[in-house]
Amino acid sequence: EPRPAISLPAGLKEWHSYALVVPHNQRIHSATPGDAQQTQHSTAATAAAAPRNVYCSRERLASRSWTRAQRNSRSEATETMRRAVLRAATRRRRRRNFSDALPAASGGVGVSPAVRDQTQFEQLRAEAFARRSRPDMAALVKCGSLHEAVAEVVSAKMSRAASDTRLPRGALRQLLWDALRGDERVGADVAAIIKRDPAATTHLQTIAYLKGFHAVQAQRAAHVFWKAGGFENDHVAFAIQDRINELFAVCVHPGAQIGGGCFIDHATSVVIGETATIGRDCTILHGVTLGGTGKARTKRHPSIGDRVTLGVGATIVGDIRIGDDVTVAAQAVVSVDVPPGMTVVGTNNLLDPAKLAARVREAPDVWAFDPELHLVAPDSDAGAAAWHGGKGVGSQGGGRKETS
């Protein structure tokens, strides 16, 4: 016997519940005049038919009439977002050229922080909308700004998997949002990560999954309470620091000051002391230590300039100044002031890029290291002033000696 025609209920949810609980031979069919003839079937056939679930009918109807009706009734805004998400999901994964693509999202020249943050948030929301069936992505879609979205993500990560945590989710989310609201450094961090990290392909990945970004934002919230002072505020600040250390393997004191555009890659085993300061647009790799010297409760940690790169495992200790545009090589140890533009290797060995470039132009096929040509150690009286004419001061084995 042919299966009786079934009228689809008004909504999919109603049809789900209706199809799962009502047997096939007991279903109520449409009573409209046009359907009366289609829904008639013999009583004998109905009695002989065994009660059946209709998963197949649900799939068949959903793939035909229901999908077509719903697609035609979608609003223009939803359809536009669906197409944008589809294009983003199917395009070839490659690193974009941020000099001419998405200038607002990348913090290009002439773009205000407000426009940049709004553009980043719209991109994040579109990417999360494609995965809105997940509860965490649905929460991002409901956010109203970039700062609220960051507070949502970081609070969720810091409060999970700890039933007796001292940081309840609701209060922590509100705390982070209040601390980050209006802070232009948040958008600058997102732009810096996407621009400098070829592995960061989307705003959603950057904001939802990179623990270096999460650690920096949580520390900024802790810093707000640290600055306020008082026992209660200090308790909140250290509770956040403790959770950052436990969850992200990053030990950063609430008193440290971190500028915008900070990119902490991988982040594991990064240590930043209480009185350390970090300028804008700095890149820090895993295993970096900004440590202190002495026991005095004064400035005892490094001051890092702008656009500084700190390589893997670099150790910078003491109340010293690392100038702008300095590169500290992997595993280098720095305990002296470094002038702007220098490269530091080994233990307090400073390479002058200008001298190095001149050497390469003279003999590009020679790769031997020449201490007299390349090394500069800061003068003990001038405190890393710079070059002294044509003579350099070399530093080897921890000591200093004049070279001619």
Main sheet overview: 7 strands, mixed
Give the proportion of residues in helices. 40-55%
Count of individual helical segments: 15
What is the CA-based Rg, rounded? 31 Å
Uncertain spans, ≥5 residues at pLDDT below 50? Answer: 3-56, 92-105, 161-165, 364-369, 379-404
Structural class: alpha/beta
Mean pLDDT: 74
Within the largest sheet, what's the order of strands?
A: 3-6-9-12-14-15-16
Shape: globular
Beta-strand residue fraction: 5-15%
Span between termini: 105 Å
Strand segment count: 18
Descriptive account of the structure:
This protein is an alpha/beta fold and 404 residues long. The chain is built from 15 helices and 18 strands. A hairpin with a 3-residue loop joins strand 14 and strand 15 (349-351). The model is unreliable at 3-56, 92-105, 161-165, 364-369 and 379-404 (pLDDT under 50).
Looking at this protein, list some descriptive labels.
single chain, 404 residues, alpha/beta, 5-stranded parallel sheet, 18 strands, 43% helix, 11% strand, disordered N terminus, disordered C terminus
Briefly say what this structure is.
With 404 residues, this protein is of the alpha/beta class.
Topology at a glance:
Blueprint: H1 12-21, H2 33-36, H3 43-48, H4 55-73, H5 76-90, H6 113-129, H7 135-142, H8 146-159, H9 169-180, H10 184-196, H11 203-209, H12 211-228, H13 231-248, E1 250-252, E2 257-258, E3 263-264, E4 270-272, E5 277-278, E6 283-284, E7 289-291, E8 303-304, E9 309-310, E10 315-317, E11 321-322, E12 327-328, E13 333-334, E14 343-345, E15 349-351, H14 353-362, H15 371-374, E16 375-376, E17 393-396, E18 399-402
Parallel strand pairs: 1-4, 2-5, 3-6, 4-7, 5-8, 6-9, 7-10, 8-11, 9-12, 10-13, 12-14
Antiparallel strand pairs: 14-15, 15-16, 17-18
Helix pairs in contact: 1-4, 6-7, 6-10, 8-9, 8-12, 9-12, 12-13
